[in-house]
Amino acid sequence: MVEEGSVGAGEDLGPEELEAALHQVAAWAASYRRTVASLPVLARVQPGAVRDALPHEPPPHGDSVERWLEDLDRIILPGITHWHHPGFLAYFGITGSGPGILAETITAALNVNGMLWKTCPALTELEQVMVGWYARALGLPGDWFGMITDTASTSTLVALTAAREAAGVDVREEGLSGIRPLVLYCSEEAHSSVEKAAVVLGLGRRYVRRIPTDERFRMKADALDHALREDRHEGRLPFAVVATVGTTSATAVDPVPAIVEVCRRHGVWLHVDAAYAGSAAVAEEFRWALDGCQEADSLVANPHKWLFTPIDCSVLFTARPEAFRRAFSLVPEYLRTDVTGVVDLMDYSFQLGRRFRALKLWFVFRHFGLEGLKEAVRRHVRLARTFASRVDEHPAFERLAPVPFSVVCFRVRPPGVNDETALERFNLALLERVNARGEAYLSHTKLKGKVCLRVAVGNLATRERHLERTFELLCEEAGLQ
Prior knowledge:
Blueprint: H1 15-35, H2 49-53, H3 65-76, H4 98-110, H5 121-137, E1 145-149, H6 152-166, H7 171-174, E2 182-187, H8 192-200, E3 208-211, H9 221-233, E4 237-244, H10 256-266, E5 269-273, E6 298-301, H11 303-306, E7 314-318, H12 321-328, H13 358-393, E8 397-399, E9 407-412, H14 420-436, E10 443-447, E11 450-456, H15 464-478
Helix pairs in contact: 4-13, 5-13, 6-8, 6-12, 9-10, 13-15, 14-15
C-alpha cells in the first residue's frame, strides 16, 4: 500500500522537492554541456536498442528523480545524436543556447496555453513584440504582422493556406471539388516541405511546378514566368510562388526582386522560405540576402536554425494578415470572449494550442544583444569559408557550390577515380567512415545529380580546430596524404 505523500501516491512534487529536483537536473544539464565534446557525435546504438531497454509496461508505482536520471544516462544518452557537439556539422547545425534552455525551463513551469489573448495576455503580447524585434534585427518591415510556430514546415503550410484563400476560390466552405487545378511554384532546390504543404492542401504533387535553377542553384525567374503563362493558358490557376533564401542543399538565394516582379505581373502570392539564411541578416553585410523580401506577401525565418534558440521556434511574417484570418478564423461559443482590441493568435493558424515560445527568443535577445548575435554569425561564416579554402587548395577535393553563408558543399576525387557512379560510391562510403569515427558528423546531398558532402557550421561551440580535425579525418579516411 502506498502511503499518502510518498512517491507515486497521486501527488505532485512539493515545492521543496521540486527545488531539490531542479538542482539535480540543472547539475545534469551543466555536466552534459561541459562533457558533450568528449562523446561520439552520432549515436552508436543499433535500431531498437533504446526500445528494448525500456519496460513494456508502465510502472505501477512512482520512483525517485535519482532513478530517472540514472536511466537517462544508462538508456537514453547512448541513443542521442549530439546536436550540441562542436563536431556536429550535418544538416543545419543548431545550438540551444544557455539562455534558451533557461527559458524552456520557465516555460514548462508556467505551462500556459496562448490560444486566446485572455488565456495568457503575456504570451500573446510578448510574441508580438518578439516578432517585431526579429523583423527589425533582420532589416525587415517592423510593422509586419507575425506569429511564432514550431517549424518552417508549419509556417509554410499556414502561409500557403492563406495564399489559397487570397486566390479567391471558396475552398474554405466548398472544398476543392469542381474548381480548376491550383498550381504552386518553387525551385528544384526548394525544401520538401513545400511539396508536403501541397499534399496537405489537397493540390497534389502533380501541381507543384519545380522551376529550373541556374549554375548557382538559384531559381530562374524567366522560367518561372514561362511556367505561369503556360499554366494559365492551359486553364489552371496559379496561386503562389515559394522563393528560397538559403536552400537546404547549397544555401543558394533565389533572385527575389526578379521573382517579385513576376508574381506581381501574374497576381500570385509570394512566400519566402528564409528558414536558414534569414537570420544571417542580423549582420548588415548579409542583408543582401533579403533584398526584395520586403515586397513578399509572407516570409518565414527560423531562430532555432541560426539564432541559438532551442528547437522549436519558427517566425512567420506577413504583410497580409487579413488573408490568414479569412482562412483560419473559426470561433466556437466556448472560445468567445468579450475582450476587444487584442490579437487572438488562434485566428491566424490551424493550431489552437500555443506554447510560450516567445520567452526563449526574448531571453536569447537579452543575453546576446544584437552585437553578440552578429559576431556569432560572422564567426560561423569565417569558419566555413576557411574550410572552403582548404577544400579549394587540395587537389583531391572539389567544391560544388558557392559559400554565401556557413555551409560548404564538396566531394573528394581520389586519383584515378573519374566515373560519376564510382565517385558517388566513394564519397558516400567516405561519409560513413568519417561519421563512424565519432569526432564529426557530416551529411550529404545531391547538386545537379552529383553527390556531395556538406559541412554546416552553426554551433556556438564550434571552433577552427574542430574544422581542421574534420578535414584531417576526411583525408585520413580517403587515403590522402
